[in-house]
Amino acid sequence: xxxxxxxxxxxxxxxxxxxxxxxxxxxxxxxxxxxxxxxxxxxxxxxxxxxxxxxxxxxxxxxxxxxxxxxxxxxxxxxxxxxxxxxxxxxxxxxxxxxxxxxxxxxxxxxxxxxxxxxxxxxxxxxxxxxxxxxxxxxxxxxxxxxxxxxxxxxxxxxxxxxxxxxxxxxxxxxxxxxxxxxxxxxxxxxxxxxxxxxxxxxxxxxxxxxxxxxxxxxxxxxxxxxxxxxxxxxxxxxxxxxxxxxxxxxxxxxxxxxxxxxxxxxxxxxxxxxxxxxxxxxxxxxxxxxxxxxxxxxxxxxxxxxxxxxxxxxxxxxxxxxxxxxxxxxxxxxxxxxxxxxxxxxxxxxxxxxxxxxxxxxxxxxxxxxxxxxxxxxxxxxxxxxxxxxxxxxxxxxxxxxxxxx
Length: 407
Hints:
Distance between the termini: 59 Å
Number of strands: 18
Radius of gyration: 24 Å
CATH superfamily of the largest domain: Transferase(Phosphotransferase) domain 1
CATH class of the largest domain: Mainly Alpha
CATH topology of the largest domain: Transferase(Phosphotransferase), domain 1
Shape: globular
């Protein structure tokens, strides 16, 4: 039987082939057509297969090589019907765990940096669909193995509507399988490329930027530096909201939350004045005391250079060491790309792009071909403050998402 590197031929029709080698799991499937439209869930991919019949064969694995780590539902997702379906499946299992035999693979979704992703559902519940990320540890370097461990660890921590849920982690021989959310609407990069001029209207940019900001705020509150923000890693859920993906390049740091109470004047506020026995609103400025919660890993530090070249911060390119500021730089690049259809420092090659990022050259906006819509000036100002090359002066590096929210 062919080895892993020869199992899937995406260029033409396939006869019976397998993803896993003989000695381990047998995922046999047949495909006669290529479907380029089916969206990937966690991998940046390309070609998905249709008309597949897949099956697991766990009989080839000894009990000692199969382990399943069921995840306890966290607060915000515990009412998700998929958890109920998993509980029903595990109640019938002899050891109370979810195993590969409980899953039916539907099709291959794509290939990512660490492994392949399949669409699957529970055998006794067609409506409980998931993405199964399958990682062959034998094919990975020790560095990438550490990335696998980091992603699994971070996924197990997350409990947020704009971040994926890890439903189960299954170790089968030298394979690590992560059962996570499936996002049926593809990724934001694909959607962006379908827009006129490869750009979104400002209102759409605000929507996606706000949701990404909230997701980054949550990650930073956990001490997680994302380091891989880009439209390709932003998946679109069935309801149109976003879900960040791919956490293998993250690193963790300490974070000390603080809460301060600030006095501020509310804009266009009205106060009620008692007048003649009834309350009447009176326009004016009212001073309010509002809480300001900040949980930003300001002491985070790493020297490893990871990420996508167009989104790398100057301190990443120089190798001088970096911290939380790389995510806020990437957020600025992200907003710029949604507005203008390209990234601000893109050159004719990767080397030129990195040179532009590291140089003292200021970021420039494209010349406006027509009258700019209302709000563009404020968006440009935000981008300029996020793309300050000195992280000590970059917006977000001190108070995180609060800086952006108060802009």
